[in-house]
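Entry type: protein chain
Record version: 2
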Amino acid sequence: QVGKTLELAISDSGQVYLVPIRVVEKKRIKTVLGKVSAIRIDVELFGPRGMIESDGKFSIWFTEDARRLPVSARLKNEYGTFDIKLKKVLRNLSQLQSAQLGKAASPAVP
């Protein structure tokens, strides 16, 4: 629900942070799954009371279906803007096992 704010407990190195998360937008977006209804969550990790004291912003787009798949994210900080996109969805256990075996069998690249 747009406008809703929650707190998420996150533990890092023995310290527990209560991180505010806010539902800020809902729209259809183009993804690897096709066009889907999605919600954008802003996670307040940055700032004097956050996990990271420097300035920055972090947003995640989740599908609005029961799976709540994270399909996109954006991180803005002092180093730049980083856009993250879901590239592939493994639909069943055999696909997951094949993907893991393929990675294990791949030679290491220096």
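Comment: DSSP finds one helix and six strands in the chain.
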